[in-house]
Specification:
The complex is a heterotrimer of chains A (382), B (292) and C (290).
Chain A (H helix, E strand, L loop, with lengths): L1 H21 L14 E8 L6 H21 L6 E8 L4 H13 L5 E3 L4 H13 L3 E4 L14 E3 L4 H14 L5 E7 L2 H16 L3 E8 L7 H10 L3 E5 L3 H12 L4 E4 L6 H5 L9 E4 L9 H13 L7 H20 L3 H10 L3 E3 L2 E3 L12 E6 L2 E4 L3
Parallel strand pairs in A: 1-2, 1-3, 3-4, 4-5, 6-7, 6-8, 8-9, 9-10
Antiparallel strand pairs in A: 10-13, 11-12, 13-14
Chain B lengths: L1 H29 L6 H17 L4 H29 L4 H23 L15 E3 L2 E3 L1 H23 L1 H11 L1 H6 L4 H26 L6 H16 L4 H21 L5 H15 L16
Antiparallel strand pairs in B: 1-2
Helix pairs in contact in B: 1-5, 1-8, 1-9, 1-10, 2-3, 2-4, 2-8, 2-9, 3-4, 3-8, 5-6, 5-8, 6-8, 9-10, 9-11, 10-11
Chain C lengths: L1 H26 L7 H19 L3 H23 L4 H21 L1 H4 L5 E2 L5 E2 L2 E2 L3 H24 L1 H11 L1 H6 L4 H27 L1 E2 L6 H14 L5 H20 L4 H21 L13
Antiparallel strand pairs in C: 1-4, 2-3
Helix pairs in contact in C: 1-6, 1-9, 1-10, 1-11, 2-3, 2-4, 2-9, 3-9, 6-9, 10-11
Classes of the chains: A alpha/beta (382), B mainly alpha (292), C mainly alpha (290).
Chain lengths: 382, 292, 290
């Protein structure tokens, strides 16, 4: 009996061993041999619905690091990026941060994209006096998280407030419904928008939520139809595809507003025209920009990822690496120097427009109002 | 407004009925919770997507996917469940193995196709046809009619055909059926084939009506479990009824209560039935649920 | 050092989780997929008490356990007369409902935004503000839980549990009030899971519903099954393995998106293979057989 059991056991061990062995191959930027090597930790989500953003962000960071290293002469600063997965899970993210700071001794960390992960990681990173620059976490809670905590992702506060102002003042909307995804992102943005909208004299006449990842929002849409708002603000990710489609099929007529996640040509392409006319607040990255630098960036991302279009997280990640580089040029390569350098940045120009940090480490960026015309993302004109 | 909600209940309920039916057929003949059905479901939708993106028209892609799904389901039975049954594995062991296969299946889909949402759409989205104060799209009409048709076919299969009678015999008492000369293994394999086909059909309809992600099987599976328990284990009208019940509860519940509690309603129904009437609406009343 | 301490602390927390689940599932044969929900209850109770009332650790531990026990009783009493696979489904329903409550009851739990700023644990007047101190506390609690459960399962009480696991009707025939034993064990196990939650809240100082999903329950269950149900040490080995392996892989190669999915495929395959060839896991006594 015993030998038979052990041979099965060996099968399991063999599988484990094979798996571990196959982990040897994977992208990691090549360690440069110049003296001034700065290690940058990167924490990105590689699983789940947002894995696509992790992938494009990874490609963007690799690109930026490659470009910087190629241009560095002898004695110039070079980057070595160490990538870690956070699985969009706060505990895993925390473990990634600890490993990066302890074992890899990184001078700065780019990431994470997820707000909950950022909130879990920030106290530790701050305590260790290592710079954290998030290209994606938008929760307002991160603003006061620490002196070393930065982000070039726009806080929901700005996005929500700017869109509310625009809606009331430019679009002259008086009554609105909000349809939001029931997670940290959706709840946070809904609260900010509602507050500002009502402060400016508008009325929020219906508020409906849907679970992240769900695909049947018909009842919520019918309830909104019943309330007959002039406009409806949609907060979600890929669920927006289903929302727009079902709304159109149900005959819901309203002026649609949405969030920056709609600023993704891949996503809009799946909507079958149902999102046409939607006005949305976008972080400052234009997929349709004529700026040659942005075009080159978008093309290279498409090549590197096998066809995925660059999204705002990729753009922010790309700029994040360059922002760190800029900070180092200004002040030095230690963590404190990088921090000081970031605070002193004034209108840095990247693929996401101009970037400056306020005293909280939040970024002050204009919110771009865009719209969708014939299935294509366009700036909102007049 | 209410008519739209009722119509939506019918649409959702039809899908759930199909998934519950497939799941229930396996449960009643094989006797355990085949969680991996959720993986077959999702795989079906993605098979359609593969065939369709390769250039095949939907008229070919869908039957191809159904056959593919049937093969996957049957492979699971032959490769994993049957050997386990030979070793006299308990329901719980089968459930755990099933869970393992579900995890494997879902992640394989993620690996092969990526995690982003895929659609089967070519043209523009258009408004539904107005009917009785509500709106209905062609696909949704297709959902309701397919569901009715397939439920009817299953009923016919089980009541009027030889293999159907064999399935009922196995569901009733596998040992007795074996003694009477029925090849239990073959009957179970057949149940997996039919069940998987139903699952793939349901997933295809969902993909046509909205879209697909690798995670789509998870919630569908949970609903199938609730529907089968609420409607009555082992009963075809029961699974269909359970599906409709869950569809209605979901939509009506979201209509009346804050919509974020939608899922809670579904699972509360599960708990209520398990507490007070584990045999479901149409199941027979024994002290141990799940036995006919 | 901090990184190693982090791993050890998480192992301690998971030890409490797997030992308590082993008591319910491995020794009594009641598989529960609601363990993460009770873990979450402990975390939220601790977070709320700590944030609003600055309570000390012993009180938090007890409060977490009591609330979890209370909810456990409400759940277990009506539902423990179900057959084992039905019971699993019931626990699944309970897990989903509780997750929804964590996520939707914004006023109490912060909803999806979670509860940030949880104060560090306070024990006997001292703040447990460094990781080495926390490890001592966590390891201490884990050892206590382990020894208590071990004592329990090695006693005549434990023998009754195993009898229930092997053949419920027979145990019933012997005059044991099987239902009552099952309820007790479920409640105790769930209360212990809440203690793990209490530690987690103090350690990460930020909790949100995403840490207490059905996926987490399945992870804990996998640790128990793969390690070997019904042996206490097996599940602990499972906990160590499934906590350490993903971290080891960080060093061997970069975690591409493929790796994360591959890992899940591996876990799923191991579960299936374990059921086929080694249902007792690495060191277990019980393979969930009839």
């Amino acid at each position: 009996m015993r030998p038979r059991i052990f041979s099965r056991f060996r099968i399991m061990v063999a599988i484990l061993a094979t798996y571990i062995a196959t982990q040897g191959c994977g992208p990691r930027t090549a360690p440069p041999d110049a003296a001034r090597v700065v290690k940058i930790g990167v924490i990105l989500p590689m699983t789940g619905e947002v894995a696509k953003y992790g992938k494009t962000a990874l490609a963007a960071i690799e690109m930026a690091v490659g470009e910087i290293n190629a241009k560095a002469g002898t004695g110039g600063v070079r980057f070595q990026a160490v990538f870690e997965d956070d699985a969009l899970n706060p505990t895993v993210g925390l473990s990634a941060a600890k490993k990066l700071i302890e074992t890899d001794k990184v001078a700065a960390i780019v990431g994470p994209l997820g707000s909950s992960v950022a909130l879990a990681v920030a106290p530790f990173v701050e305590q260790r006096r290592v710079v954290l620059l998030s290209p994606g976490a938008s929760t307002p809670e991160l603003t006061g998280a620490g002196d070393f905590i930065f982000r070039n992702a726009l806080s929901d506060v700005f996005e929500g407030q700017d869109l509310a102002k625009f809606t009331v003042q430019e679009l002259k909307v008086k009554t609105i419904a909000i349809l939001y995804v029931n997670n940290a992102f959706g709840v946070g943005l809904e609260q900010v928008f509602k507050e500002e909208f009502e402060r400016l004299g508008g009325k929020v006449i219906a508020v409906e939520a849907f679970a992240q990842g769900s695909r049947d929002m018909r009842t919520q849409l019918v309830k909104i139809m019943r309330a007959q708002p002039q406009s409806t603000y949609l907060i979600g990710y890929e669920e927006m595809i289903a929302v727009f489609k079902q709304a159109k099929e149900l005959g819901l007529r309203t002026r649609w507003l949405a969030t920056t996640f709609l600023n993704d040509q891949d996503l809009v392409g799946k909507m079958g025209g149902a999102a046409d006319g939607c006005v949305f607040a976008a972080w400052d990255y234009s997929p349709d920009s004529q700026d040659p630098r942005v075009r080159a960036f978008a093309d290279k991302i498409r090549q590197r990822t096998g066809g995925l279009n660059a999204d705002v997280f990729a753009a922010n990640s790309y700029d994040a690496i360059y922002l760190l580089y800029d900070a180092i040029q200004r002040k030095g390569t230690t963590s404190e120097a990088i921090r000081d350098g970031l605070y002193s940045i004034d209108d840095f120009e990247g693929v996401t427009g101009k970037t400056s940090f306020d005293r909280n480490g939040d970024v002050m960026k204009p919110v771009r109002i865009r719209t969708i015309v014939d299935g294509k993302i366009r700036p909102y004109g007049g | 407004m209410l008519s739209q909600i009722l119509l939506d209940s019918l649409i959702a309920g039809s899908i759930y009925a199909l998934v519950a039916l497939g799941f229930g057929l396996v449960y009643s003949t094989a006797g355990f919770f085949h969680f991996a059905h959720g993986a077959v479901y999702a795989a079906g939708a993605y098979l359609v997507f593969s065939a369709w993106s390769a250039g095949l028209s939907l008229y070919f892609a869908v039957p191809l996917a159904i056959v593919g799904g049937m093969l996957i389901g049957m492979l699971m039975e032959i490769g994993i469940y049957r050997p386990l049954r030979r070793k006299r594995a308990s329901n719980l062991t089968l459930l755990i193995a099933s869970l393992g296969m579900f995890i494997v299946g879902q992640n394989l889909i993620s690996l092969i196709f990526g995690d982003d949402t895929k659609t089967l759409r070519t043209g523009l989205v258009s408004e539904g046809i107005p009917i009785l104060g509500a709106r209905l799209t062609k696909v949704q009409l297709g959902i309701i009619t397919s569901s009715v048709l397939l439920i009817g076919c299953c009923w016919f299969l089980l009541k009027k055909t030889k293999i159907g009678r064999a399935m009922r015999a196995v569901a009733d008492d596998p040992q007795l059926a074996a003694i009477r000369g029925i090849n239990v293994d073959r009957v179970i394999l057949f149940a997996f084939a039919v069940g998987s086909a139903l699952g793939v059909t349901a997933a295809t309809l969902v993909a046509l009506d909205s879209d697909m992600t690798p995670m789509m099987g998870f919630y569908a599976l949970l609903v199938a479990v609730v529907a089968v328990i609420a409607g009555g284990i082992g009963s075809i009208p029961g699974a269909a009824l359970g599906g409709l019940l869950i569809g209605a509860a979901e939509q009506l519940g979201a209509w009346r209560l804050p919509t974020e509690w939608q899922q809670t309603i579904v699972f509360s129904i599960l708990i209520l039935f398990l507490t007070f009437r584990p045999q479901g609406f149409l199941g027979r009343s024994f002290d141990k649920p799940g036995t006919w | 050092m901090e990184y190693i301490l982090h791993l050890l602390i998480m192992i301690a927390i998971y030890t409490i989780l797997v030992v308590s689940l082993d008591l319910i599932a491995g020794y009594t044969g009641l598989l529960s997929i609601a363990h993460a929900a009770f873990y979450g209850i402990g975390a939220y109770v601790t977070a709320l008490l700590s944030i609003h009332f600055r309570t000390q650790l012993p009180l938090n531990v007890m409060a977490s356990a009591i609330v979890a026990a209370f909810l456990g009783v409400i759940f277990a009493v009506p539902l423990l007369r179900l057959r084992d696979d039905y019971f699993v489904v019931a626990t699944l329903g309970f897990q989903m409902i509780l997750y929804n409550i964590f996520n939707n009851w914004v006023g109490l739990t912060g909803g999806p935004l979670g509860l940030p700023g949880i104060p560090k644990a306070i024990l006997l007047g001292t703040r447990i503000d460094t990781s080495p101190k926390f490890l001592i506390v966590a390891a201490g609690l884990a050892l206590m839980v382990y020894f208590v459960v071990r004592r329990l399962v090695r006693s005549p009480y434990g023998r009754v549990l195993k009898a229930i696991r092997e053949d419920e009707r027979f145990a019933q025939a012997l005059g044991k009030n099987v239902r009552w034993y099952k309820v007790q064990v479920f409640v105790v196990g769930s209360a212990l899971a809440a203690i793990a939650g209490c530690l987690y809240a103090h350690y990460t100082t930020f909790i949100d519903p995403t840490s207490f999903t059905v996926r987490e329950s399945i992870l804990i269950t996998s640790m128990v099954i793969l390690g070997g149900a019904g042996s206490l040490r097996g599940p602990i080995l499972g906990a160590v393995m499934l906590t350490v392996f993903p971290e080891l892989l960080r060093f061997i190669g970069f975690q591409s998106s493929v790796a994360a999915n591959l890992r899940q495929v591996l876990y799923g395959s191991l579960l299936v293979l374990a059921m086929l060839y080694r249902p007792h896991g690495l060191m277990g006594e019980f393979g969930f057989e009839k």
